[in-house]
Description:
Blueprint (H helix, E strand, L loop, with lengths): L1 H25 L22 H10 L1 H4 L14 H15 L15 H6 L6 H6 L7 H15 L6
Amino acid sequence: MKAAVWRLFKGCLLAVAWIVGICAVLQIVPYGRAHSNPATIKEPQWHSARTRELAERACFNCHSNRTTWPWYANVAPVSWFVQADVEAARSIINFSEWNRTYDLALYSGQSIRTGNMPPIKYSLAHPEANLTEQEARELATGLDAMLRPPGQR
């Protein structure tokens, strides 16, 4: 019996050593750890200071050039996913580069109302971004007023 337990222990130890070794090798890949934020070029004309305040709290970490990179964004392979998520979010709407057009921007309020934004995985890691129901309504209304054509608000 002792021999079987010892073999199991050695097998687990070997598996852990392999996992640690693979994770160490993954740190060589630089993608996802170059966390310098680009400069803010231009922000939109905000509907209100409150809309900007709520957007800053719930949206800016991904949808602006003012990302606060968490410690785990420096550890591959997690860093790869964080970097890819931020790049994708900035391509959809970037509140720091309002000199470009964003085809999906007009759906921002709707995304908040339906609960698609912020995503659950983000909300779990960043509880400060969780909005109350009232705050979510305020943000959605403010974004609609800013981003939707008058006939579509």
